[in-house]
Each structure stands twice: as structure tokens, then as C-alpha cells.
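ZP: hey, is the adenosine-5'-triphosphate complex queued? I don't see it on the tracker
AM: it wasn't, my bad. submitting now with these inputs:
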Amino acid sequence: MQLGKLPQTGRPVMDFERNKKIGIFGGTFNPPHNGHYYLAKKALEEFSLDEVLLLPVGLPPHKMQDPVLGRELRRRMVELLAEMDPRFRLCTMELERDGYTYTIDTLRAMRRQLGPGTELYYIIGTDTLFELPTWKEYEQVFSYTTFLCFPRPGDSMARVRRQIAYYQEKFQKTVLLSRHLGPEISSTEIREMFVNGEPLDGLVPDAILEFMEKNHVFR
Ligand code: ATP
């Protein structure tokens, strides 16, 4: 059984596919930052996940206006993030797909290849919570996964709770809200600071910062 290029660690596929709670953390990772690291770690702990698949997206339709680094550069940076915890794994499924990538296609492909006992949890921040209705076949997405949502600084919690209640009523599906507030870090901010030569200590993992400097990304 094959799950795209899902396992990057050399561990056999069978190892992770039965009766497990798998977190899927999709993102542009343009670049990955300590906010991503924090979310992935907290998701593992708080929701007792067995592992988190770090899933760099190919060409996200709604982000085409941003200067998105190429797939290979983002893949290598997310690989560095994946090395920070043995329960993180890089999933290159979407990077390998041509053109736009849609979460529903990824979830369907995963579901086809994973045993029915495997539960899929999709990790998002509250900004993404509000964007879900713009996703392709978003109603279907809810039938494939449970969302784990992390509050993002600046997002109104009253509005977040209303949105979650709306999804609950529409899909009879609970969005699990983390008790951990995501740190005040975004890739947008990192890109700007990096281009301006501002120090990024504490905002980006050292290995990724080194990679960004060596490869002159965003410049
Ligand atoms: P950009 O600034 O380019 O939009 P980003 O920092 O939001 O990027 P993405 O790779 O787009 O990073 O994020 C992937 C997912 O992680 C999204 O669901 C986003 O909401 C969530 N996320 C990223 N950073 C944080 C954070 N600091 N707190 C909470 N959620 C976050």
C-alpha cells in the first residue's frame, strides 16, 4: 500500500496506517516558523495524536498573489521542521500534484489508502477557520476530517465560537478548539523582516533560518 510520498523517514507505510490518530498540518510554509512548530507540538499533546504530517501545499489558489517560494525550497524547509520531532513527518503529496492543490483531493487519497480505523485531524489556525467555505467541496471536507483549531492572536473568540457553532449545526461535526493561543508569528511578517534584515531569533527555527540565509530566499 502506498500513500503518495507520505513517509519520508524510511519507516514502512504499514507502521502508521492502523488505528491511529493522525494530525495533518497543511500550510504554505512560506517559510515555516516557530508558530507552526508550536501548533504541531501542542496538537500532539493536547489531542493525543500519534503523529503530525506536515503537508506543504502546492499552489494554493487564494495565495497566488503572495511571493510563494517554489515547491523544492519549501519542501526542504519543511523537512528541517520535520526533523525537530520524531512524531513529525513531511508529506509531499500535494507538492507532487500539478497545478492547484485542494485539501479534499488529499483527504480522499489518504482515506483510500489508510485503514478505516485511522482518524484524521486537520490542524488550522482561526484565520483558516473562517476561510473553510471557500475550499473546494468544503462540505465534504468535514466528512473526511475533524478540524483542530488554534486561536490566532487578534481573532475574536466570540466570532470563532459562532463560526464553530455554525459548522456544528450545518455538519453535525465538532471543531475542536485548542486551549493554546498560537504565538504572534506569521510567515508574512517573517518574509518582511527577513527582507529588511531584521533579526528573526525566536521566530524561525535556527536550521530554517540558516537555510533561508544560505539560499537567499525572498530576495
Ligand atoms: P501567511 O502569513 O503567509 O499567511 P501563515 O503564517 O498563516 O502564512 P501558513 O503556512 O499559511 O502560515 O499556515 C498554515 C496553517 O497554520 C494555517 O491554518 C494558519 O492559520 C496556521 N497558523 C500559522 N501560524 C499560526 C499562529 N501563529 N497561530 C495560529 N495558527 C497559525
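AM: back. The mean pLDDT is 90.
ZP: great, adding it to the tracker
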